[in-house]
Amino acid sequence: MLVEPVLEHSVSHLSKYDEVPQELHRAMMRLNFPSSYVVVGAYRLFTDKSLYVPAWNKCRNGARRGLICGLAWIFASYNIQRRIIKAALTNPSSIFSVRYITRFEETADDLSHETLLGFKLPFSISTYVAILLVGSQVTGIISFFVARNIRVARQRVWDQTVASRGKGPDFWQPYVEEWESPPVVNERRGRLDRMFKMWFWKVIIQKVILLPLSLYPFVGTFIAAAFKSLSTAQELHKPYFVTKRMTAHQEAVFIEERKWDYRMFGFVAALLEGLPIIGLVFTVSNRIGAAMWAHDLEKRQHYIAAQRRTSVIGRSTGFEAAQT
């Protein structure tokens, strides 16, 4: 019996099917820069009426009510929260103290007599943190009013994006393993990840741990986005995994093989979604980008499946010829 030779893996663990035909070159170029799908998703949402008009019509009533309540909350609480934040930042014993990088002056006003790493700021750090904190609170208020409708809008923009590519339900085929030697995933870690995705733990992690971290002047937003990158990307691709009917193990292997792609995509997506108020818009546009990424990943899956079928047929023909 003929035995197919096993090819050596490169450092990047690419499979032997990476030499793709000409018609897949553009998709492969996009797959090399997964964070670009976030930008493309935002561009499509802001320019395609078939996407932004239905999404806005679905969410506008809740968004208006939430924005009115949010503005009332800003006028009622901003000054109080700013004073509390300034006291916390200037107290040397506070965990939020930034005296080691900042020079505060007693007479500092909002138009800044403060410096960060020697550079003059256009506003005080306490004002910056207060804006982020109150902005996140207003975002939470608006989210409360649009929670159900924005979930529907996200699903609709996913479906509309897939339909715009001219693909039907039969386009999404069963999962095909692309690596010659797939990575071994820790099943216990997978169960732990699922536990932390429960709503209770999500609230604890996002509101108790990551929210204060994101308020840390300037660097906190990026650190918080890095922590959320992988989980954000997984959540955005959940419709893809469901459509392909992937098992939990297949999903874990698929993500492990592309973990840095998922981290890059998720980092940019989480960074935009973390912006106060406007971040809610990016939770919709990121679904569009995720759908376009899934479309290119599926095209690659089709190519791999075709190569596997050709390989099996070739081995079968060779075996029959050897018998004769």
Entry keywords:
324 residues, mainly alpha, three-stranded antiparallel sheet, 11 helices, disordered N terminus
Descriptive notes:
With 324 residues, the protein is an all-alpha fold. The protein is 68% helix and 2% strand. It has eleven helices and three strands; from the N terminus they run H-H-H-E-E-E-H-H-H-H-H-H-H-H. The chain has helices at 25-31, 36-47, 49-90, 125-164, 187-196, 199-214, 219-236, 238-243, 248-257, 259-273, 279-323; strands at residues 102-103, 115-116, 119-120. A three-stranded antiparallel β-sheet has the order 1-2-3, with no helix packed on it. Strand 2 and strand 3 form a beta hairpin. Helix 1 crosses helix 11 (279-323). The longest helix is centred in the last third of the chain and has 45 residues, at 279-323. Residues 1-17 and 100-111 have low confidence and may be disordered.
